[in-house]
Structure formats: C-alpha cells, structure tokens
C-alpha cells in the first residue's frame, strides 16, 4: 500500500464499530454479518489498517465461485476448456471509510485481492465482481474489468497474462 497502511485478515481485535463508508448496506454488513460469513467459510475478509492508529480504513471480501462457461464472453470462451463452469474468485464487497476516501486505497485493495487470487493454491481463472452502481462499475472498468456476458454490472478480470512474482 502506501506505507501508512497494512492489510490483514479480519480478526476480533479489529475495531469495526468506527467504520463508516457512504453505503449503509456495506456498513451494516461489516458490523453485523461479516464474522458469521467468515466463521461459516462463506467468504474471507481483509482489512487495511492505518499503521499509526490501527483504525480500519477499508475492507474487502473474497470467496471462491464458479461461472457457467455459457455465461462468459465469447472471446474468453474460445481460450477455455469446455468444462461446464469456470472457477473464479468473487470479490464480494469493497468499502472505504469516508475519512480515507480519495487516497487510492480502493485500487490498492483490488490489487491485493488479485494477488491473493493469483497466489492461491486453488486455481481460479478470473476475479469476478458485481458492481453495486455506475460509480463502482466505472472503478472496476478503470482497473481492466470487462462485462461478463450480458449480465448487467457483473464484471470479470481474467488472471491470465497478469504477471506476479511472489
């Protein structure tokens, strides 16, 4: 990140009470539901902490998933084996506290998610996200995501061709 933040797996020591982004559904999920999803192994949650204060600046969730091959864009289908579904990492939520917005933390978290997907011992072909609105869709498109078939605001970033040495 920028040297002022570090990314960790969400833990009970992290203070989620003070987190507030400008989307209430993301606030309530982080405060009330994320620990249940993590405990049930439905998702993993990562937080970026401000180094000086240990305050949660932002978070994202990442889970394994699958996309039907027939739902993929035609140019991607041509490059894949003809299995019924394609393994993906699903970026479920990404939120930045209002006090930390405008510092390019969203892009840093997105890159962290991509690196985790690339490093995983369980191979995934792409990262998939459901953009919550036009602003989020523009953010993901800026970072190389494209439409996933005809599904509105569902976007994909194939991991083939992304170089990671780690």
Automatic annotation (TrEMBL):
It comes from the Bacteria. Pfam families: Acetyltransf_1. It catalyses: glycyl-tRNA(Gly) + acetyl-CoA = N-acetylglycyl-tRNA(Gly) + CoA + H(+). GO terms for molecular function: acyltransferase activity, transferring groups other than amino-acyl groups. Keywords: Acyltransferase, Repressor, Toxin-antitoxin system, Transferase. The keyword S-adenosyl-L-methionine does not apply. Gene3D superfamilies: 3.40.630.30. The keyword Isomerase does not apply. Signal peptide: none annotated. Residues 7-162 form the N-acetyltransferase domain. InterPro entries: Acyl_CoA_acyltransferase (IPR016181), GNAT_dom (IPR000182). Belongs to the acetyltransferase family. GNAT subfamily. This is Acetyltransferase (GNAT) family protein. It comes from Methylobacter tundripaludum. The lineage of its organism: Bacteria, Pseudomonadati, Pseudomonadota, Gammaproteobacteria, Methylococcales.
